[in-house]
Design a protein that fits this description.
The chain contains six helices and five strands. It is α/β, with parallel strands linked by helices and 186 residues long. Its EC number is 3.2.2.28.
């Protein structure tokens, strides 16, 4: 879809799902909270204009240029992927219940054990805390592992997250990039 979705298309996207961008043995599997309606309507992760995921991914050193959401499948060539804690689309992440997030955490854990990425990067500290039961977790590398997979929590790149500037997001993505490169070389 090359144009913005209509109001009807956005409404029709409510409670739908979009496919993961995933393969075995990724370096980093990025995990959103859940897809928004815009993403559901265009069937692309982090697709809403104003979402800062794609700029932060590039500024953090993961991609050679800024990718567009329509290029999400090209991430696999870079050994990167995308999934979500909860698969269903909503207008806002706060529409999700604690039970949904905890169940999503269990499903995500199973997915990580199956695909075995070196790193799982959850974008959203509050969702991570709820999904995995770590209420005091902070942004950054976690002690928690899933099998052999290291876990890192990144700030939510939504334009609604005013606590993090684009420069702050880029720095945090860059910290993960540096850590993931270091661990690869060990």
């Amino acid at each position: 879809m090359s144009t913005r979705p209509t109001k009807d298309q956005l409404a029709a996207a409510h409670n739908t799902t979009i496919a993961d961008v995933i393969a075995p043995g990724l370096d980093v599997l990025f995990c959103g909270i859940n897809p928004g309606l815009y993403s559901g309507a265009v069937n692309q992760h982090f697709a809403r204009p104003g979402n800062r995921f794609w700029p932060a991914l590039h500024a953090g050193g993961f991609t050679p240029r800024r990718y567009a959401p329509a290029e999400q499948e090209q991430l696999l060539e870079l050994k990167l992927g995308i999934t979500n804690v909860v698969a269903r689309t909503t207008a806002r992440a706060d529409e999700l219940t604690g039970d949904e997030l905890r169940e999503g955490g269990k499903l995500l854990e199973a997915k990580v054990l199956e695909y075995r990425p070196r790193w799982l990067a959850v974008v959203g500290i509050t969702a991570y805390r709820t999904a995995f039961g770590f209420p005091k977790a902070r942004v950054g590398c976690q002690d928690h592992r899933i099998g052999d997979t290291h876990v890192w929590v990144l700030p939510n790149p939504s334009g609604l997250n005013a606590h993090w500037t684009p420069a702050g997001l880029a720095a945090e993505f860059g910290r993960l990039r540096a850590a993931s490169g270091e661990r690869r070389n060990r």
